[in-house]
Model the fold of this input.
Amino acid sequence: METPNAPNFNTPAPPGSAVDLNRQLAGLLERIAGGDQQAFAEFYQLTSRRVYGMARRVLIDPELSEDTTQEVFLQVWQSAAKFDAASGSPLAWLMTISHRRAVDKVRSSQSSSDREARYGAGSQDIDHDSVADEVDNRLEAEAVVRCLGTLTETQQESVRLAYYGGLTYREVAEKLNAAIPTIKSRIRDGLIRLKNCLGVS
Amino acid sequence: MNETNESNGRQLPRAFAADISTDLGAGRAVELAEIYALDAVTGEERDAIEEYIRTAPEAEREAFHERVRQARETLAMTFAVEEEPPADLFDRIAAQLPGIPDTGRVEEPARPQAADELAAARERRHLRRTGGLRNWIIGVAAAAFIALGGVGVGAYIASQNDPLTQVLEAQDVRQATVEVSGGGTATVSIAPSKDALVVRMKDVPAPPPGKVYQMWLIPKDGSTPVSQGLMDEEALSKPAVVKGIASAAALGITVEPAGGSEAPSLPTVASAQLNT
Done:
């Protein structure tokens, strides 16, 4: 079913502005850990659009998305001291917290068939409408679009259904009418290919 | 380069089973890193993976964490959708922060229990909208410090009927003192029942040559701050009455060129949330 993976000739993309943002966020997290409210306000200003934007994509409902955003930032305030730069960038740390919260909420509030239907109705071409238009750094956005293009259609679809639909691998398999081991592989292979293409190290 | 099992029926070494526990039992925990990072597992499966990793040999544990870390970086880079959250969301969050000192917010006096829950909720929503992130930051930047306390009405009050006295002697008056950056304090006495407040400056240095202090009310609805008048060196020593505070979220004081400005210049030298 899958097209064979094409060789990857792409050079790693420069992380660009993400590096600056992460440096800034790391400094703020250190201050937040010490109870600095202004640092918290700045951290919110820099990241709330991303957290809320992701929550809206996953949850659709504005109030649930606000609740999630609120929980995420309260968690940031409480666990800033636990942020460990060795286990990832501040942005990845934040988005991990956010995605986990959004997914937990969508799963407890909506059945998987609702989520699939909703995802189907609401999903546009994510790599173009969201990434290219909304990431500040054009180079990085272009790299993301280009790298998503190196994934097979089914890899892209599986990863997106899981990320924005909040579906488990099992639910993705049901939705795509594919074998469960196949979906697990697509998710793994898709993300690894994306990682290699983006030059994440 | 990412040679894995595609769905061609061949069982390659990294081929998955249908369920997570079989994968873990067969030593494929590291291969689950991406699925785990994507939260594409149930809560129970997540727990099972974490439990397995906690007790796994160090090399396996590290390999798993490294793959999870890379997958999370990849996801954060790839799925970057931005949408502006509601303007009052930050205030709602800030209001819930545990263990922080009060910073420029005048406490509400005790209110009678709201008759119905809906009205109470409406009121909370209304209160949340006051202020906004910008004011909150300004409040912090100006190092505003609110000291709550009883209202001491000085003997200097001359008449029972002047606006100053009416505010200071109102039943519901409450008082807060904010620090003015540059030195001194501003004491704000707020009387919602009179729709007015009184500002008294203490030990505040005269404005720089060619400058004045200007007071502003910052409307709750997010519209442009409204000037409440200027204070030169002489006016600093006198209490100032500000009326029409019901629609205001905060009071701010800025330094402006002599004659005042149409709109406040930043930074604010003092500010107080009103929560009327």
Observations:
- The first strand of chain B starts at residue 174 and ends at 179.
- Residues 20-78 of chain B form a domain with the Arc Repressor Mutant, subunit A fold (CATH 1.10.10.1320).
- Confidence is low (pLDDT under 50) at residues 1-12, 100-120, 122-160 of chain B.
